[in-house]
Amino acid sequence: MYLNLKNDESFLYEKIYKALKEKIINGDIMAYDKLPSIRNLSKDINVSVNTIKKAYYKLEEEGYVEAEDKSGFYVKKIDDLIVLDKRENFKESDYIKVYKYDFGISGVDYENFPYKIMQKYMKEAIDKKDIKILDKGSFKGYKPLRAAISTYLKSARNIDISYSNIIISSSTEHLFTLVKMLLNDQSLYAFENPGYAFGNKFFTFDLENPIPLDMDKDGVRIDKISDFKSICVFVTPFHQFPMGTVMSIQRRVELLNWASKSENRYIIEDDYDCEFKFRGFPIESLKSMDKNSDVIYFGSFSKLLAPSLRISYMVLPDKLLKKYEENFKDLSNTVSNFLQKALASFIESGEFEKHINRMKNIYYKKFELIVRKIGEINEIKFISKPNSLILPIEIDESVDIGKFMSLLEKNSIRIIPLSRFLFNKKFSLDCFFILGFANLSEKEIMEGFEIIKDIISKSKKNRT
């Protein structure tokens, strides 16, 4: 028998196995046909008997042939595999585009990431003396990191909570999934509208009836859900995303009082950018005001350090913590122990606080620059008082938004339409956008806004 053995780096028996398998699949060797004896094939292709044996045994193990005592190896009947033509022309660039001037809402200042310090703590995290670091890790997360976060929350947000109530995870989305598993099956879920949850399908894709809550100058309105007994409300009180509203103290009290009137009412407070408030005094968190354990607090290191760290956390009320401990004690943590240990050391050493203070100064300079540049363009105004890394703006009705967006794309400039975060996309807010600037340099902000100013001029409706 002739075998076309491929010239690759495989072992010889694998080459023979592949050649025979190809003949069987292609029908060159038919079902029930007998393969040449091991000794005869060995002579035909001038290889050892043991090599042929290994190839035949591999074919037998995978079910292509079967051995009959004192007779030899016979090809088994194998149904043809149905192959449907589902090929699509896929180009990664169709889905992922890199913008020269990305005023998107994610990202951080990559130039000022504490590379050397984090490298030091990452290296120290891999320590032969700490053999437990190789385990799958606690279902709650690395204990020293939870303790460090507990200390930080007390200092930065006046949240006095035990580290045992803190759960580490890889993302806010995963934390929200855990919360849904902890609440009862009858629980409903309500979200700010517009809000982050309606722009990130992960939050609502498995909810039959997510409830959109309208916003006003004081924050989220809860009159629509005043009579619901089993419900969880997702809010961003410190700096509402994407409108930039700060929830008033009166609305905070209303929300907390509402939650206290039923044991199955909970509030998720996503404190996503509380560290970067550029004007005025820090606003008290809902969790620090929570006297009845109704607030589930979400925090993240994505904007504080880098999105790629994939470290978020939540603070669970005691009642939900007990349920979590009972039901999820066998759960593996989704964040590497090495990374958690390195971050714990980074916080405990005081380097984390230094980094936050340094980034506040860096971001404040960018903030002042972008506010000034927007002030130079008559056709752009802020929706709310600018005060954060994310700025909501409105484009004047004299501008053709379609042309404006098209020219932005051509000039490799990205800004995010606010309508993306609406519950009902039919109610268009075409002239409203949100700007981020953390990942841009001051030079890029200057250049980007010079181009935007020119695009605004070219997009005027009355332009001849």
UniProtKB/TrEMBL annotation:
InterPro entries for this protein: HTH_trans_reg/aminotransferase, PyrdxlP-dep_Trfase, PyrdxlP-dep_Trfase_major, Tscrpt_reg_HTH_GntR, WH-like_DNA-bd_sf, WH_DNA-bd_sf
Keyword DNA-binding: yes
SUPFAM superfamilies from the UniProt entry: PLP-dependent transferases (SSF53383), Winged helix' DNA-binding domain (SSF46785)
Keyword set, alphabetical order: Aminotransferase, DNA-binding, Pyridoxal phosphate, Transcription, Transcription regulation, Transferase
PROSITE patterns in the record: HTH_GNTR (PS50949)
Molecular functions (GO terms): DNA binding; DNA-binding transcription factor activity; transaminase activity
Keyword Transcription applies: yes
Residue ranges of domain HTH gntR-type in the record: 10-78
Stored Pfam families: GntR
Domain of life of the source: Bacteria
Family from the record: In the C-terminal section; belongs to the class-I pyridoxal-phosphate-dependent aminotransferase family.
The protein, known as: PLP-dependent aminotransferase family protein
Species this protein is from: Anaerococcus porci
